């Protein structure tokens, strides 16, 4: 009886292809894969601007960029959460940037046990030199899109960010003391 059942089962299986045989994940159509690949490529393209000229790696730039767009000092934890970079990676970048005199620790007035980070004068000068170059590079990357397509892309990314409950503006992050 078991033999007949096995034979019948095999016959049915051979008539219809198994789901594994006919369907597979096409990574090149899978949005998370595409977004990750695109983010990595764009990040690498931008990194040329600060790596070759200033010796900064991507995590160090993320620290400088986060501190540069903020009005107030913030914690390394904020930077890690904001940039979605592992805290140990940010910690190493912070150590190097402190050593290079680009950032400094300041006491948190609300909690004197905690130190926050801010750009030094040297770090601010570097940030102000770099961000226009990075904006120009962003324009070069997006040159394949029309002005309308750029607006649509921004709106669509915003919708995805909102659906994932991600903070989308620095004002929103400051107001919520988020990240």
From TrEMBL:
PROSITE patterns, per the entry: HTH_MARR_1, HTH_MARR_2
HTH marR-type domain span: 32-162
Classification via InterPro entries: HTH_MarR-typ (IPR000835), MarR/SlyA-like (IPR039422), Tscrpt_reg_MarR-type_CS (IPR023187), WH-like_DNA-bd_sf (IPR036388), WH_DNA-bd_sf (IPR036390)
Superkingdom in the source lineage: Bacteria
One Pfam family here: MarR_2
Region feature Disordered, mapped onto this chain: 1-20
Keyword Transcription tagged: yes
SUPFAM superfamilies: Winged helix' DNA-binding domain
Gene3D superfamilies: Winged helix-like DNA-binding domain superfamily/Winged helix DNA-binding domain
Key words, A-Z: DNA-binding, Transcription, Transcription regulation
Coiled-coil annotated spans: none
Protein name according to UniProt: MarR family transcriptional regulator
């Amino acid at each position: 009886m078991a033999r007949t059942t096995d034979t019948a089962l095999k016959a049915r299986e051979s008539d219809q292809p198994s789901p594994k045989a006919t369907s597979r994940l096409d990574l090149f159509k899978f949005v998370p894969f595409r977004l990750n690949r695109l983010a990595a490529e764009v990040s690498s393209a931008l990194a040329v601007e600060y790596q070759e000229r200033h010796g900064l790696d991507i995590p160090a730039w993320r620290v400088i960029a986060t501190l540069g767009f903020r009005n107030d000092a913030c914690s390394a934890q904020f930077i890690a959460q904001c940039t979605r970079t592992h805290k140990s990676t940010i910690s190493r970048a912070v150590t190097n940037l402190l050593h290079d005199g680009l950032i400094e620790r300041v006491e948190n007035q609300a909690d004197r046990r905690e130190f926050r980070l801010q750009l030094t004068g040297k770090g601010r000068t570097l940030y102000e030199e770099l961000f226009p170059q990075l904006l120009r590079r962003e324009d070069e990357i997006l040159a394949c899109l029309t002005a309308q397509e750029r607006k649509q892309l921004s709106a669509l990314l915003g919708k995805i960010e909102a659906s994932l409950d991600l903070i989308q503006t620095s004002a929103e992050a400051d107001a919520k003391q988020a990240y």
